[in-house]
Amino acid sequence: MPNVKIFSDSTSDLPGDWLQRHDISLVPLYVVFGSETFRDGIDITPSDIYQRVEKEGTLPKTTAPSPGDFVSAFGPYIERGQDIVYISLSSKLSSTYQNAKIAAGEFPEGRIHVIDSLTLCSGIGLLVMKAVKLAEQGLSSEEIAVQVSAMRPQVETQFVIDTLEYLYKGGRCSGMQHFIGSLLQIRPVLKLVDGSIIPAYKVRGRKEKAVQQMLDNALADKDNMDQDLILVVHTEAEEEALKLASILQEQTGARKVAVSEAGCVISSHCGPHTIGIMYTRKLPVH
User: Fold this and answer.
1) Spatial CA neighbour of 40 closest among 268, 286, 239, 195
2) Is pLDDT at 183 greater than 60 in this prediction?
């Protein structure tokens, strides 16, 4: 058993069999419909969310795990002598990171390292898999935290939203933007910069055009890509994701290009048929 236990939250959207194989633990965020609260990926699935939104016409809210949730999750591993590296959803998008820091303060200093991923979804997953690899190599929790933190600016996360409806209902897109965007069929391609979501560009026309633009951008950067792992993430767009993964595998020669389905939190904010490409750039050589 490695001396370091790797933790993340449910927004890291890694395939379930990877979590089991590498003994990665997740602390779930919550999805809230009115007075009902569900744990992401445990009590509710993305398809449950889409069905309820279609039926009720309102989006759920998502909330961070409490400091108490983290204390309960971390405690057993600290007691059995393992140190912890926890990689969280971007602090600019959620209070998850802050609550994990509060919980870490309840344990002896240096036993838990909490890292703000400054990204979301499988972008977090890329950092988690790097941490797993380092833990398997026998590095200490502090060494892992230093190396993973250095990798954060190298994570490239872009995704195409199929419908502005969820962004609009969630208050992330004004009524006028939504109206004009729907009218002109504008597809926003979003990216993460310093932990915040920004529009990378807008493509007019069919979604396929926006996805092709995202793919072209990724392939233009292929010489800088870390060859270990590229992730294609989707919400109810598996066929499209598999096609993208196949092209990326062929064009980049990466050791692994994997497809992952986004969980409830990402689905609640982006809606169905969202698709993204996430990879890590090679660290600059000094």
Assistant:
1) 268
2) no
Percentage of residues in the chain having pLDDT higher than 90: 72
Quick one: residue 285, left, alpha or beta (phi over 0 = left, psi -120 to 50 = alpha)? beta
Q: Which pLDDT band holds residue 178 (cuts at 50, 70, 90)?
A: very low
Question: How does pLDDT run across 94-117, given as a tens digit for each residue?
Answer: 999 999 999 999 999 999 999 999
pLDDT of residue 31: 94
CB 11 within 8 A of CB 266: yes
Token pair, residue 264, equals 């409830």
CA distances from 272 to 44, 142, 212, 219, 254 (A): 15, 39, 18, 25, 28
| CA atoms within 13 A of residue 181's CA, in its CB half-sphere | 22
Give the bridge partners for 166, in sequence order. none
Dist CA 4 CA 78 (whole Å):
10
What lies within 8 Å, CB to CB, of 64 at 6+ separation is: 29, 30, 94, 95, 96, 98, 99
Residue 184's pLDDT is: 55
Contact (CB, 8 A) for 164 and 155:
no
- Evaluate if residue 85 carries a pLDDT over 70: yes
Question: How far is Cα 94 from Cα 117, in angstroms, rounded to an integer?
Answer: 12
Bridge partner residues of 201 (DSSP): 189
Residue 187 has pLDDT above 80, yes or no: no
Task: For residue 150, give every residue at least 6 positions away whose Cβ sits within 8 Å of its Cβ, in sequence order, or none.
Answer: 283
**88, pLDDT greater than 80:** yes
Q: Provide φ and ψ at 95, rounded to 5°.
A: -90, 10
Residue 22's contacts (CB-CB under 8 Å, 6 or more residues apart) are 6, 129, 132, 136
Instruction: Report d(CA 83, CA 92) in Å as an integer.
Output: 26
Compute CA distances 61 → 29, 38, 64, whole Å: 11, 11, 10
